[in-house]
Amino acid sequence: MFRTRFAPSPTGYMHIGNLRTALYAFLIAKQADGKFLLRIEDTDQNRNVPEAVQAIYNGLALAGIEYDEGPDKDGGYGPYVQSQRLPIYQEYAQKLIEQGDAYYCFCQKEDKPALESTGERVQGFRDPCRNLSAAEIEEKRAQGIVPVVRQRIPEPATSSFFDHVYGEIMIDHDQLDDQVLLKSDGFPTYNFANVVDDHLMGITHVIRGQEYLSSTPKYNLLYEAFGWQRPEYIHLPHIIKEDGSKLSKRKGDPSFEDLVAMGYLPTAIVNYVALLGWNPGDEREYFLLPELIEAFDMNRISKSSAAFSFDKLRWLNGEHIRALSPEQFHQVALPYYPESVKKLDLRKMSDLIQVRTDNLGDIPELVGFFGNLPEYDKELFVHDKSKSTLESSRQVLEAVIPVLEELEAFDNDTLFANLKEFAKSIGLKVGTVMWPIRTALSGQEASPGGATELAAMLGKEETLRRIRLGLGILS
Question: Rounded to two decimals, what is the model's pTM?
Answer without folding.
Answer: 0.91
